[in-house]
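Listing S7. Sequence submitted for prediction.
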Amino acid sequence: MGFRMALVGFFTDSAKAAGISNARLFGQSEVFEPTRDLLGHPSYPAQRVQDVDHCENAELFLPGKRLVALDNNGVLIPIGANKDDEESARALLEELGRNSNNEVWVVSGGSLSSLRARYSGIPGVNLAAEHGTVLVPYGDVVQSVSIGGMPEIREALDGIAKRYDKMGMFVFDTQNVIAFKYNSDLYGTGVANAALREVKSILPPQIPLRQEAGKAYGEIKDLRIQKANFVAKLLQSGRFNSGIAMGDQITDEGMFRAMNNHRFYSVIVSRAPNQETRAKNKLNDVEEVHHLLRQLIVSPSGDAVSTST
């Protein structure tokens, strides 16, 4: 309890996270602050996936720049992807990146190292890790912010993992988002539940533990950090005449709202009929995702377009 009170005090007294300046991405003198809410509350209700229109084609062939914001797991690659799946995703991104009309971003909640392992060095393809707090524009250096208090939480989590060593808890190598997994055979057991209660006990209210039903996984992050803020900031630059965001879970919903605000495309990738979403379109699986994205490889005339430098 004492540790939690210390953390609450830390967040109350600490300054907000610094921002990221990049004139090419956000505009001259603009600063992207990942903890600043750029969307506010939703202005329209969610609907169930079964009621969302299936999207086989996207009318995205407008003059000018096109923003393509893609989640990774469950969108570019299936959950539990093998080497062939990863190679297929990389090949698709290579082709998308060759079209200079596309500005492609892989926007993930995961670590930069995991994104780099799959997609580093693809011309025209940019990486946004940890919900948009760690950025690597193609050909540029890493730009990131640091969210206060996360090192202290990680240290405490490491201690819990050691005490509950039978869980096999693995903490991912992230900076601003602390994610972990554990032995799936222990999901729902007394040991796992006790460890997770202890994790929750050390966290301040604004940095809760997010869990997914049926998954031996957890994510700890500041509630203000959302993929939505990053995508919204890109769109606010006014550089894009069209765009599409694709994701498969609740952490992608903000990207959909950002695209909807500009009347661009938002696509949920899901077969779960009762999953709630604010996406305007849906696809069933990764195969359908790749099929749709291949439409963006060529120009309206049908010719491949080279990536500009």
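Caption to Listing S7: primary sequence and predicted structure tokens for the chain studied. The chain has nine helices and 17 strands. The first strand starts at residue 20 and ends at 21.
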